[in-house]
Amino acid sequence: MTGPGTNTYFVGGQKVVIIDPGPADDAHQENIIAALQTLQAAAQAVVITHSHPDHSGGAPALAHRLDVPLLSFGHPLHHNDTLPLDLPPSSFRPHPSLTILHTPGHTPDHLCLWWAEPRLLFAGDLVAGQGTVLIIPPEGDMTAYLDSLRAMLALSPQAILPGHGPVIADAPALLQQYLDHRLQREQQVLDLLAQGYTTATAIAAHIYADRPEALEIATLQVEAHLQKLRKEGRFVS
What's the pTM? Predict the structure, then answer.
């Protein structure tokens, strides 16, 4: 990680998969190159968890500089694809690899990488080590996001390595916390709809009455909930 920004991960041995090389920032990119040199490792591939520039902005230049493939969901990765890792085989896993898991919600192209043997989840922006994750329409989809959280919770990861913030040791608890928080917010939205509130702006202003500085982002988050409720036939606008 460079400062408090985007976490960049190396996975492997003498050859590493680089996950989320971060923004198009010279200092961040030079830190990645320096880390490879310190580890005496070579790059195998660059993988981005999603297309937001704080994760992907530096990826094309880095992949070109290292002369390795740049991989993302749909280009060419798909759900349940595997990336072999340069690690010794074990009796539990004769072919160490990362499994690609499509986890839309934050963005349509979001993916996580699952390292099954140590039960580690490289989560991108599915969750954060600190704070929360924004689900902002039109690319953010609350229905898909909740489904992705449930799918990753079902894996029962030992730890989560997020795109931002520290490693999450109690991974199932955090995933459940994220689910509970979103469902509690959804119930708040439903309660306010029943009271006659009809717009995302009005609902957000009520919920975040003590945080007016957050109203703009909060309104977009509420709109994501309203879109989910519309799709389910629980709200008609």
Answer: 0.94
